[in-house]
Specification:
This protein is mainly alpha-helical and 201 residues long. It has two domains: 4-123; 129-200, DnaJ domain (Helix Hairpins, Orthogonal Bundle). The two termini are 44 Å apart. The protein contains nine helices and two strands; from the N terminus they run ααααββααααα. Helix content is 63%, strand content 4%. The longest helix is centred in the first third of the chain and has 27 residues, at 52-78.
Length: 201
């Protein structure tokens, strides 16, 4: 069982409050909601006070660092999995703790980034501006991807082979030379091109 002393030894002062708040939210909580609850709890963030964007990044980083530290500690000490995503952070009971892939959940590159405290120390206003620009570029691409998948009548987890097969099927049905609708054919083709760019990027 993780206690306050264990948390303090892990190096992030927010660990105790984050762990308590997560245990109080068995259905899960978004990162934004977690941030608001941390602030309402009176926890102090040592962040830049003269740069709103940098301060928000620093708060985000400290929270994510705490979450990944807790993810490791909860699994090691209690065989409990902490699932981390922006929209839902939740502690899950594991049915079979012997499965090799069950311990950690998420992106290894993100984990390494947020566990490297140098990223916090070396990220300044200019780097945050670049990160935000990159985020919006990726967000726009993701949004287009969602629309393209919907046009092809596919779920978000469709793999490339499924996309190709579905494109061929819908293109054959909607092709004007086969009595289909030209506008629908063009929409299907455009959706396929968007998804191809996403997978080739």
């Amino acid at each position: 069982m993780i206690d306050r002393d264990d948390n303090a030894s892990l190096g992030n002062p927010l660990l105790p409050v984050v762990l308590r708040l997560l245990r109080e939210q068995p259905a899960g909580i978004s990162e934004y909601e977690l941030l608001k609850k941390i602030e309402a709890d009176g926890a102090h963030f040592a962040v830049a006070e003269d740069d709103t964007q940098l301060a928000l990044f620093q708060k985000h980083f400290v929270i994510m660092n705490a979450l990944y530290l807790l993810q490791d500690a909860l699994w090691r000490d209690e065989q409990i999995r902490l699932v981390i995503s922006p929209l839902r952070i939740v502690i899950e009971t594991v049915v079979n703790a012997n499965e090799p892939s069950v311990a950690l959940h998420g992106d290894d590159a993100l984990r390494a980034y947020y566990l490297d405290w140098q990223q916090f120390l070396t990220t300044d206003s200019a780097v945050v501006a670049e990160l935000l620009a990159s985020f919006w570029t990726r967000y726009a691409a993701h949004d287009q991807r969602g629309e393209a998948l919907a046009t092809l009548q596919l779920d978000a987890d469709a793999d490339w082979e499924t996309i190709r097969q579905q494109y061929r099927r819908l293109a054959a049905i909607s092709h004007p030379d086969r009595g289909g609708d030209a506008a629908q054919f063009l929409a299907v083709r455009a959706a396929y091109e968007v998804l191809r760019e996403c997978y080739e990027a």
